[in-house]
Design brief:
Elements lengths: L1 E5 L3 H12 L5 E5 L2 H10 L6 E4 L8 H9 L9 E5 L4 H10 L3 E4 L4 H12 L12
Parallel strand pairs: 1-2, 1-3, 3-4, 4-5
């Protein structure tokens, strides 16, 4: 399975990658902001099983990125989890309205992150919905 990790912190991307590897992900593309993520998506023909994105980044924030990809009908099925320090209720509501499939507040434990990804992908082992992407 292939994931796009979008965060301006290389350390955060490394933590996410490690957690996703335990769920069977074996291919990763990384981006430091939403602009770079869209470029990476185009280069990879939008073929990702999961996108993990931070909200607060330079150039293009995560919320704007989600709004942009959700405006393209062919990308509505992409699974997106937002991982961010914006843990207040209005932020969560805004992210869900924009089209994220799940929301994880920082700081988080790897187990919390993995559980959310499993829920998003469907099924107890986190695999099953990936074929719908």
């Amino acid at each position: 399975m292939k994931a796009l990790l979008v965060d301006d912190s290389a350390t955060m991307r490394k933590i996410q990658k490690g957690a996703l590897e335990t769920l069977g992900f074996d291919a990763f593309v990384e981006a430091g902001d939403g602009v770079e993520a869209i470029q990476k998506m185009r280069e990879g023909n939008f073929a990702f099983d999961l996108i993990v994105i931070d909200w607060n980044m330079p150039n293009m924030d995560g919320l704007t990125f989600v709004q942009k990809i959700r405006s393209v009908p062919a990308l509505k099925g992409l699974k997106v989890v937002m991982v961010t320090s914006n843990a207040d209720r209005p932020s969560i509501v805004a992210a869900l309205k924009a089209g994220v499939n799940g929301y994880v507040a920082k700081p988080f434990t790897p187990d919390t992150f993995k559980q959310k990804v499993k829920e998003i992908l469907g099924g107890p082992n986190g695999q099953g919905a990936a074929s719908n992407v």
